[in-house]
Structures are given as C-alpha cells and as structure tokens.
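Milestone 3.1: sequence recovery, worked example.
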C-alpha cells in the first residue's frame, strides 16, 4: 500500500472487490514503453516474436483506443502458443 492509501492495483477505490472488478485507466506512457520493449526484443526466433506479441496485447489494456480485457488477452496468448505448438496456422 502506498502512502496515499492506494494499494497499487488497478481498479477504483469504491469498496468493490479489486479481484472481481478491474479497470485499466488509459496510460499512453505505459503503452509506449511496452511497445518499445516489444520492438526491441522482436527478432527472427519464434519465441521472441511470441513474447513481443504478448507485450503488444498487454499494452492494449492501457490504450484508450483499444477495448480489451485481461481475459481476452489470456485467450489470445493461449491461441498464439497453441498455434506455435501445432507448427503454424493450417490454411
């Protein structure tokens, strides 16, 4: 908990349970930072591409132009990993 009484977790301080109701306020600096890191680590290896994609999806939580939830990101990441495990998308 910080000095101002905030616990550092996302969500309001309205007495609601932060584990069941989470809000991510727009944070352009966090979006830029996560995407910059993603661009720096992206290389030719599939692992670096996967991690970069995960960072981009995570940054969407803080992008005012995106509407996503942590659950949607988890589903997307699982899909990315499953496709990689299968050897790619079958067309």
């Amino acid at each position: 908990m910080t000095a101002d009484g905030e616990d550092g977790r996302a969500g309001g301080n309205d007495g609601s349970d932060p584990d069941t109701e989470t809000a991510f306020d727009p944070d352009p600096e966090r979006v830029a930072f996560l995407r910059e890191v993603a661009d720096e680590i992206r290389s030719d290896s599939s692992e670096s591409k996967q991690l970069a994609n995960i960072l981009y999806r995570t940054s969407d939580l803080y992008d005012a132009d995106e509407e996503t939830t942590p659950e949607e990101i988890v589903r997307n990441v699982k899909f990315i990993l499953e496709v990689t495990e299968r050897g790619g998308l079958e067309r």
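The chain has a mean pLDDT of 80. The chain has three helices and no strands.
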